C-alpha cells in the first residue's frame, strides 16, 4: 500500500513539474510576441510620418537643413558618382526618393555628384592619325580636328602633339585637336632642347628665337638635375613653332 502511495506521489509531482515548465514556456512566448510583434505594430500604427523632400541638386548644407526641418536624419554615402547634369558637390541621388512617405526620424541616404569625369589626355606623339582617333575615343574625348605642323624627326602624317597637351587633365567629352606633321618648316622655328640648361640662361635664347615663356612649374628631379635647370618643355623640343608661340617649362626644384 505504501509503495502505491509513493508511486502516486511521484507521478503527481512529475505532472506538476511538467505543467510548470509548460507554463513558463507559454509565458516567455507571450512576452516575446508582445515585445517583438504586437508592440512594434501598435507603435507603428501611431508613429508620425512625412514626405521626404526633394534634395537633388542641393548643396550639402541646404540638404541637411531641409531634412532636419522635415524631421529626418541624414547619412552621406562615402563614394560619389559622376554626372554630366548635376555639378560637383551637389546631391545627386537620395534614398528614399523625393515624395515618398516615411516615418519621422528615418535616415535618408544621400550621394554627392562628382561632376563630369576627368581624364588625362594620352600621349599620341608619333602615332598615326587613325591610332590617335582610337586613343582619344577610348579616353572619352572628341577629336576636334587636325592642325598641320612640322617636326625635325617625326615623319609626315604622324602626330606631333595635341592641343591641349598630353598629360593635361580635361573632362570627358572635351575636344582635343591633333597636330599632324606636314613635313614643312616654312615660316616656323625649331624649338631646341633646353633640358639641363638653367632657366636664367633660357630667357635670352627664347627672346632670340621669338618665343614666349609660358608657365614655369617646379618639380623634384629624380636624376639629380641642378636646381633651376630645365627638366621638360611643352611643346617638346624638335617641334617647329610659329614665332610668338608660348612654351611651358618644368624646372628642377
Structural class: alpha+beta
Give the percentage of residues in beta strands. 25-35%
Overall residue-averaged pLDDT value: 86
Biggest sheet: strands side by side, in what order?
8-10-7-14-11
Order of helices and strands: HEHEEEEEHEEEEEHEEEE
| Portion in helices | 25-40%
For the secondary structure, the number of strands is 15
Q: Report the radius of gyration as a whole number of Å.
A: 38 Å
Coarse morphology: elongated
Helix count, per DSSP? 4
Q: Major β-sheet, in short?
A: 5 strands, mixed
Tell me the distance between the termini.
112 Å
User: Uncertain regions: pLDDT < 50 for 5+ in a row?
Assistant: none
Structure description:
- It contains four helices and 15 strands.
- It is of the alpha+beta class and 253 residues long.
- A five-stranded mixed sheet has the order 8-10-7-14-11. A three-stranded mixed sheet has the order 2-5-3, with helices on one face. A three-stranded mixed sheet has the order 12-15-13, with helices on one face.
- The chain is elongated, with a radius of gyration of 38 Å.
- The relative contact order is 0.10.
Quick take:
The protein has 253 residues and is an alpha+beta fold.
Strand-helix topology:
Elements: H1 2-46, E1 49-51, H2 60-70, E2 73-76, E3 91-95, E4 101-103, E5 107-112, E6 118-120, H3 129-138, E7 142-151, E8 159-163, E9 169-171, E10 175-181, E11 189-190, H4 199-209, E12 212-219, E13 230-234, E14 239-241, E15 246-252
Amino acid at each position: 500500500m505504501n509503495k502505491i502511495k509513493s508511486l502516486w506521489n511521484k507521478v503527481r509531482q512529475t505532472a506538476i513539474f511538467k505543467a510548470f515548465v509548460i507554463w513558463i514556456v507559454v509565458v516567455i512566448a507571450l512576452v516575446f510576441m508582445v515585445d517583438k510583434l504586437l508592440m512594434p505594430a501598435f507603435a507603428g500604427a501611431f508613429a508620425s510620418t512625412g514626405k521626404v523632400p526633394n534634395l537633388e541638386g542641393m548643396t550639402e548644407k541646404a540638404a541637411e537643413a531641409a531634412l532636419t526641418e522635415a524631421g529626418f536624419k541624414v547619412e552621406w554615402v562615402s563614394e560619389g558618382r559622376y554626372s554630366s547634369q548635376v555639378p560637383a558637390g551637389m546631391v545627386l541621388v537620395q534614398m528614399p526618393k523625393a515624395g515618398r512617405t516615411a516615418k519621422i526620424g528615418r535616415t535618408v541616404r544621400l550621394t554627392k555628384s562628382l561632376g563630369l569625369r576627368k581624364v588625362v589626355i594620352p600621349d599620341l606623339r608619333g602615332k598615326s592619325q587613325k591610332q590617335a582617333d582610337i586613343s582619344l575615343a577610348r579616353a572619352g574625348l572628341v577629336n576636334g580636328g587636325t592642325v598641320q605642323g612640322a617636326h625635325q624627326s617625326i615623319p609626315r602624317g604622324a602626330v606631333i602633339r595635341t592641343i591641349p597637351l598630353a598629360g593635361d587633365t580635361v573632362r570627358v567629352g572635351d575636344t582635343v585637336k591633333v597636330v599632324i606633321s606636314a613635313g614643312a618648316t616654312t615660316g616656323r622655328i625649331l624649338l631646341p632642347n633646353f633640358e639641363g640648361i638653367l632657366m636664367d640662361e633660357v630667357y635670352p635664347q627664347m627672346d632670340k628665337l621669338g618665343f614666349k615663356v609660358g608657365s614655369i612649374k617646379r618639380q623634384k628631379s629624380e636624376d639629380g638635375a641642378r636646381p633651376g635647370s630645365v627638366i621638360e618643355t611643352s611643346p617638346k623640343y624638335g617641334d617647329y613653332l610659329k614665332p610668338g608661340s608660348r612654351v611651358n617649362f618644368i624646372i628642377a626644384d
